[in-house]
Amino acid sequence: MLSAFFEVITGRAPDTLRAYLLAVLVEMLAVNAFIEFGGVEIPYSHFFGLATALGGFALGLGMVLAMGCAGSVFYRAGEGKFDYVVVIAAYGLSAWLTANWLVAPIRQFLGGEGIRMALPRALGLDRWITIAVIVLLALLWFLRDRHRLAMMESWSSLRTGIALGVVGALAWITSTVIGQPSGLGTVEGSANIAELILRADLSALDWHFFLVVAIPLGSYVASVRRGKSPALPVKSKRIPQAMLGGAFMGVGATIAGGDNIFHGLAGVPILALSSIVVMIFVFAGVWVGIKLKWLGT
Predict the structure, then answer these.
(1) Is 230 left (phi over 0), alpha (psi -120 to 50) or beta?
(2) CA dihedral defined by 192, 214, 169, 84, rounded to 10 degrees?
């Protein structure tokens, strides 16, 4: 997701952004249909006002320092990149510390009690009318650049977006079936890793734990079959930067009630107000970090 924001901020071809938006559309239709016809209720994440916004901003800053989002750091670690292992360690530890001792007083000080609300309800609109308008606007944006949609390479942004949307929908469905509805996301599973290591608490071995553990395993298999993504040389100051980036991500994601994967690929598709606000401020944090030239320093 950092790549998608980088494309927008620097004016590059929005291939990653296109894949992300397509994933959101696929998941939006699938999950809302699951809610409508499956007779289930999926909880919206809490909106804590200023705390939600500042958490998203800190998460965005952390993503730039870490040189990856809350999802990409796991698959890059699976490719054997040590600096991203450092990011994950700092991410999980800071998320665990924040969840146990910091998040409640910070939220109380900045925003008080949180509320659960969807965008259509906040605007007084029907959910399916809102979805139809969003899908129509997105299709018009896609069709503006039809020649790119025609480029069906072996693993194009079009196919990636569809596949990611299907994975996101399945995450909502499977987590709901086992009684832990949450969709995709890594901050809770990362904190659970720290909980298991530091307290030997076996209750940490839940759906979220196995989700984040499976990402680097899948990445390792993919890297063996397809090769690793390009890597930059690890400079001496990269490790402290990775630690700081992971810490910012863990604190920000916990205060915001979820990381960019949770909000961007689980909350936005169900039109959760908190997730939309978080992603706006994550983008703002990434923008500031890039303008400060933190990316790749």
Answers:
(1) beta
(2) 80
13: confidence class by pLDDT, cuts 50, 70, 90? confident
The answer to whether residues 96 and 191 touch, using CB atoms and an 8 Å cutoff, is yes
Question: pLDDT digit string (tens) for 200-249?
Answer: 999 999 999 999 999 999 999 988 887 666 655 666 778 999 999 999 99
First to last CA, the chain: 19
Q: Could you tell me if 106 and 256 are in contact, meaning their C-beta atoms sit under 8 angstroms apart?
A: no
Nearest CA among 123, 46, 94 for reference residue 277 = 46
Signed CA dihedral, 215, 221, 223, 226: sign only? negative
The whole domain housing 76 covers: 2-291
Q: Look at the chain and report how many structural domains it folds into.
A: 1
Residue 297 falls within a domain, yes or no?
Answer: no
Asked whether residue 296 is domain-assigned, the answer is no
Does 29 reside within a domain?
A: yes
Q: Is pTM beyond 0.85 here?
A: yes
Q: Burial-class residue 10 by CB neighbours within 10 Å (0-12, 13-18, 19+).
A: exposed
User: pLDDT for 239-288, tens place per residue?
Assistant: 999 999 999 999 999 999 999 999 999 999 999 999 999 999 999 999 99
Q: Is residue 12 part of a domain?
A: yes
